[in-house]
Amino acid sequence: MPRMLSDVYWIFWREMRRFARQKSRIAVSIVQPVVWLVLMGSNMAGLTRNPIGAKMLGTSSYLTFMTPGIMVMTALFGGVFGGTSVIWDRRLGILNKMLAAPISRASVPLGKLLAMMVQNWVQVVMILLIAVIMGVRIATGLGGVLFLVLMASLFGMIMGSISLSLAARLKSIETLFAITNFLTMPLMFTSSAIFPIRAMPPWLQAIARVNPLSYAVTPMRTVATQGWLWGQIWPGALMTAALAIVAVLFTIRQFQRGVV
Amino acid sequence: MTNMIEVRDLRKVFPNGVKAVDGVTVSVSEGEIFGLLGPNGAGKSTTIGVLTTLLLPTGGTASVAGVDVVRRPNAARLAIGYVSQDLAVDDSLTGLENLRLQAGIYHLSPDETRQRIAEVLEMVELTDRARDLVDTYSGGMRKRLDIACGLIHRPRVLFLDEPTLGLDIQTRRQIWQYVNRLRSEINMTIFLTTHYMDEADALCDRIAIIDHGHIKAMDTPSALKETLGGASVEFEFSQGSTQDIAGAIAILRPRPFVREIHEMGEQRYRAVVTNGEAAVPSIFDALSDRPVKIGAVSFKQPSLDDVFLHYTGRELRETGGEDAMRSRIMMRRMRS
Fold this sequence. Notes:
The complex is a heterodimer. Chain A has one domain (2-256). Chain A contains 12 helices and no strands. Chain A has helices at 2-21, 23-49, 51-57, 62-80, 83-91, 94-99, 107-133, 141-169, 173-189, 202-210, 212-225, 230-256. Chain A starts with a helix and ends with a helix. Chain B is of the alpha/beta class. Chain B folds into 2 domains: 3-221, P-loop containing nucleotide triphosphate hydrolases (Rossmann fold), CATH 3.40.50.300; 229-301, Alpha-Beta Plaits (2-Layer Sandwich). Chain B has 12 helices and 14 strands. Chain B has a 6-stranded mixed beta sheet with strand order 6-7-8-3-9-10, sandwiched between helices. A 4-stranded antiparallel beta sheet of chain B has the order 2-1-4-5, covered by helices on one side. Chain B has a 4-stranded antiparallel beta sheet with strand order 12-13-11-14, covered by helices on one side. In chain B, helix 3 (95-105) runs parallel beside helix 5 and helix 4 (110-123) packs across helix 5 (139-151). The interface between A and B is medium-sized, with 26 and 33 residues.
């Protein structure tokens, strides 16, 4: 076990070193959510001036409504691209070099997921900071902020695991992107990340309610806009945590079976 | 002497039906430099893949340092160093960081890590550039760093897959030096694949020629050349009638240093000889009182190329290395 932890640490260490050097990647990953916040926030501001709209959103500030959604979407994109590093490592021979070493097979996806999570924290904390500067107030304070970060990380784990599992089998980045794009867009637009469920037509509401993205967003939104209403929090939170555990275990299994 | 590599009747059939390795049996003793020589697609990399635990064989057995690579892969991994043909170093890390990562995944202690990194860096002459990003390294420097990575845990057996593919002459010589030093200083066993004849000739104690997944011949480079019947002298008569020339050949044929004589063309002959370069004056001496004159003569040692041609019926193509290296570096640029 200590050996495996050390292997995970080294994989994580490498990913973080790479991340720290990719200044443009860090910049884009922060600028992108800011653009979302500013554009969507000001476009949709009209909604909340309308009392019916405000009721649908459950808050008088669309930005507050949007902030959890953007945090989850950032985790989603971060996770979905996670598999590319495995495909590159395979193409460059780095994966084989690691697998010819006595390294625990599970540590490869675990180290990468851990790095993805920490990188995701950097991003969501930046989003929260910018949101607060723009006037967003999280109803539950610092505890709520930690909860939001945790939920976004769990959702990022799910998407990261899917991406890594695919990368364990796929040879080309293009195929990986084709599959993940096919997943992300419908996932985003059939969820409550951007639009309130109550504003959707009934058939879309039915889809949105079982969408894993909604499971993650709903408790986050409750915590951000209303408070610790546990009845609304725990179903989504538990579901997200359970999905994350299953997804991570599945990915480990894919790598243990051999990725060459 | 113990055998560090023991391969028996190794077979590997890929899911698409390709028989990459088809009944290979090889033993390599400790401290030996062994070369697997063959064209692209002959089964060299597949053989190394099985021996380095990256591929599971379809049949047969393989062990390294006395450890079965299929049954106890992790124990085998500790005993081997593997340097692929891919330049598998991370461009976005420094040379030092690449080595630190490698030491980490082999579970070296911090003290060992410091000491070994200094050692291998010095060996591949990269100490001065260790703190630079690999992105700024030349192809040869990357290769040297990759070799350093493969040595960090002091493996008993080092696998080098096409170690000098696409490298310039100077770097190739350097790498040959490292390989020779590893053997002479710490008696490391080295198993390499190559499709460069001069490399196999200069470096290897023994060579196996592999083609279509079969080993066609296996011996020392000089013994392999011997099987072709030694050196040959080609000569061309510039004076003398057909009869005189036939008489001259009749005199040469029974001489003890001549193994056989073939007619190569009009007035041109080739003699396979047993006394090396001394055969040239011997031929002139034997014909000094005959009414013929030799106008042109050439002496040829058998090369491994001839050996390869003899066993596979094909010439070994040597091109493509530089392109492979260039495309590898190009691919890396795309990533960042």
